[in-house]
Amino acid sequence: MFGSHLSIAGSMANALLEAERLEMDTVQVFTKNQQQWKAKPLDEDEIARWTTEMDRLDWRGRVVAHAGYLINLASPSDELWAKSIDLMRIELERCAALGIPYLVHHPGSPTGAGSAFGIARIAEAYRALWPSVERLGTVCCLENTVGAGSTLGGRFEELAELRERIIASGWPADRVGYCVDTCHAHAAGYDLSTIAGAEAALAEIDRIAGLANVRALHLNDSKGACGSRLDRHEHIGAGTIGGRSLGKSGFAAVVNHPAFRNVPKIMETPKGDNPKGTPYDTLNLRRLRKLVADPVPIMGGRPRRGRAPNPSAR
Ligand SMILES: [Zn+2]
Ligand SMILES: [Zn+2]
Question: Which one of 49, 160, 219, 260 has the largest count of C-beta atoms within 10 Å of its C-beta?
Fold first, then answer.
């Protein structure tokens, strides 16, 4: 299931229509302006149009929303913390109204108060949220980050501890998961530039956090080197993950990993068209799909393993 983060300009449903036009299988959206605290309530028409298109595409259960950037559930400022909880509640209500099953958010930053404080603060925010969002089905996905500055979530140990604390605060385990961003992981020091490196990283993430809890993936190449802590997304196959040989890069391991078979895989790569007028989303999608090993053919009654990813795929 491949998709991209697409614009809701004009109408929420436009993101679905654009994803369909680009021949994707899913989409990620902001359900409101991601740079603002305020949100105009969704009107009935908007919800109806979205729902009609989502059902026509049969995309229930696979669409992803990304929470706004102002939310910081780890903030030591009581005012910002309370505003973040309020906006998180609104984000979850909007997802529920739109039938969106996954809400991805960055854990946040305790800005100098330390990671232990930040983790406790986020868990406390979740505890405060639970009574008003219990009836909503949306799953919160904690996204890994590059771990720059005091930002939480660069290491999966931290994300796993955070999730444990959230569950201890009263959230059921199936309502809080992870979103793994390949650019962020690579920039945070998990080397995804080779298949072996990615397999080792995924095994480590599985041991620490459980790959079954990964409910969404962000597939982005990285401008910054492994460990650079630079959060700059690059086209698939043009960055420090897939730039040397896309077919032998960690992308091949990620798109073929059995744990991710039914996980929405979202590109947050640069937009626009190439000089020939082809949308970069189309090119990046093509590159990722080419890495997916062929369905297992039956030869002489004996199932063969899927062909190895084409190393010349770019
Ligand atoms: Zn991301
Ligand atoms: Zn990023």
Answer: 219
